[in-house]
Amino acid sequence: MRKSYYAAHTYMILGLISGLYYRELTRANHFEGDTQLSVVHTHLLALGMLGFLIVLALDKQFGLSGHRLFSWFFWCYNAGIAITVGTMTVKGTLTVLGHQVSEAVSGIAGLGHIVLTVGLVLLFVLLGKRLKPEAAAAEPGKGPVGAAAADAQA
């Protein structure tokens, strides 16, 4: 669970820094057009911070981090965010500075989105595995849901 907390905290810091970077870079270069930098802040806060806060709550309820798929999800999802946000930052910075942006940057961003999607699929597979034992969940004290229900009744 700590991994999700630290990831959420890190993405909060990066999200705030990216918003400051966008504001200061565009101001310093007197840029007033559209740039990918304007949404890096939002992507880091929504996909990173809020995403991992939700995973943290799900982990607390269903014990996701105790399963081997959790590490696969964690690293795929983080890699997807890093690749996507990194290419957005590069493309946005080059746009603000007035440089030509290679089409390869968009291709790399697409790969980042694919890796991010793989991470989300792994999360849902993992969540499905943790929700699957409905018979155990119906009995108090058995399974992740049943244990939470037994605690709530006590």
How is this structure best described in words?
The chain has 154 residues and is an all-alpha fold. 82% of the residues lie in helices and 0% in strands. It has one domain (2-153). The longest helix is centred in the middle third of the chain and has 29 residues, at 69-97. The protein starts with a helix and ends with a helix. The model has no long low-confidence stretch (mean pLDDT 89).
List the helices and strands and how they pair.
Layout (H helix, E strand, L loop, with lengths): L1 H27 L8 H26 L6 H29 L5 H29 L2 H5 L4 H11 L1
Helix pairs in contact: 1-2, 1-3, 2-3, 3-4
In short:
This protein has six helices and no strands. The chain has helices at 2-28, 37-62, 69-97, 103-131, 134-138, 143-153.
